[in-house]
Design goal:
It comes from Natronorubrum halalkaliphilum. By secondary structure, the protein is of the alpha/beta class. It has six helices and ten strands; from the N terminus they run E-E-E-H-E-E-H-E-H-H-H-E-H-E-E-E. It has a single domain, classed as 3-Layer(aba) Sandwich (Rossmann fold). The strands form two sheets. It has a six-stranded mixed β-sheet with strand order 6-7-8-3-9-10. Strand 7, helix 6 and strand 8 form a beta-alpha-beta unit.
Length: about 240
C-alpha cells in the first residue's frame, strides 16, 4: 500500500514539476571512436509528467528505463532534445546554464547514489558546502550543518570524515547536504542502491520523513520502496507506461 497522500486534494496544490513531451537523445555525432560511437541513443520518448507540491513520487523501472535522465532533466543538468521541463514555474529549456545552476543551488536538493562526499572534509563541512556557494558565513554554515546532522541521527559524527563512516552513515550525510539550503524540491537517484536491505529501507524512510513539506522525486529499481511513495511512476524504454494516478 502506498504512503498516504497529503490531506490537501491534489488539485489544490501547485505544480512543482511539469515535463511536457520530453524527448532526450544522447550521442548522434561522428566520433573518432568509430561508426557505432556516432549513433544516438534515445533515453526518453515523449515523457509528460506533473508532480505537485508536497508530493513524494517514485520513478521505477529497470536499468536503462530513463529514470536518471528524468531526474537530470528536472534538475536542469541536461536540456532535453525536445519538449519542455518546468521547475517551480520556470521553463528550464529556455534558461541559460548559469540560470539553471542558480535555480538548482537555491531550490533543489540532490542525493546521488555514490554519495559524492569530499574525503578530506568532515561530515559537517560536506553538508555545509552548498551554503558556501550561496555566500553564508562560516558560523551560520556550521550551525545549519550540525542541526541537519542531528536530524538524520549523526549528531555524534559531525567531525568524522567519510572514510570513518559506514555506507549508511555516508548516505545520511548526503541526505543532510541535500536539505541544507531548505530546498523546495529534493531529487534522489537510487539512494539505496549501494546499501544492504535493512540500511536501504531505513535510509528511504529517513529521506521521506525529513523531506516533509517538500516535493520529493526518487528514482529506484527497488519495488519495496514504493510503499513509501504517494505515487509511483513507471518507466520502460524511456517511456512512461503508468503515471500512478
Amino acid at each position: 500500500m502506498a504512503r498516504e497522500r497529503p490531506s490537501e486534494t491534489a488539485t489544490a496544490r501547485p505544480v512543482a514539476v511539469r515535463c511536457t513531451d520530453v524527448t532526450h537523445e544522447y550521442g548522434g555525432r561522428s566520433s573518432w571512436l568509430g561508426s557505432d560511437a556516432g549513433r544516438s541513443v534515445t533515453a526518453l520518448r515523449d515523457v509528460s509528467l506533473e508532480i505537485r507540491s508536497n508530493e513524494v513520487v517514485g520513478l521505477t523501472g529497470p536499468s536503462g528505463s530513463g529514470k536518471s535522465t528524468v531526474l537530470h532533466a528536472i534538475a536542469g543538468l541536461v536540456v532535453p532534445t525536445a519538449g519542455t521541463v518546468e521547475l517551480l514555474g520556470t521553463d528550464l529549456t529556455t534558461r541559460s546554464e548559469t540560470e539553471r545552476t542558480r535555480l538548482r543551488r537555491e531550490s533543489v536538493g540532490l542525493v546521488f547514489q555514490q554519495f559524492h562526499l569530499l574525503p578530506a572534509l568532515s561530515a559537517a563541512a560536506n553538508v555545509a558546502l552548498p551554503l558556501v556557494q550561496l555566500g553564508y558565513g562560516r558560523r551560520d554554515r556550521r550551525t545549519r550543518a550540525r542541526e541537519l546532522l542531528e536530524q538524520v541521527g549523526l549528531g555524534d559524527r559531525v567531525d568524522h570524515r567519510p572514510g570513518e563512516l559506514s555506507g549508511g552513515e555516508q548516505q545520511r550525510v548526503a541526505i543532510a547536504r541535500s536539505l541544507v539550503t531548505d530546498p523546495d524540491v529534493v531529487l534522489a537517484d537510487e539512494p539505496t542502491g549501494e546499501l544492504d536491505t535493512e540500511t536501504g529501507m531505513a535510509i528511504l524512510a529517513l529521506l521521506v520523513d525529513v523531506a516533509d513539506e517538500r516535493t520529493v522525486v526518487l528514482a529506484t529499481h527497488d519495488e519495496r520502496a514504493v510503499d513509501r511513495m504517494h505515487r509511483v511512476v513507471r518507466l520502460l524504454d524511456g517511456e512512461v507506461i503508468d503515471d500512478g494516478r
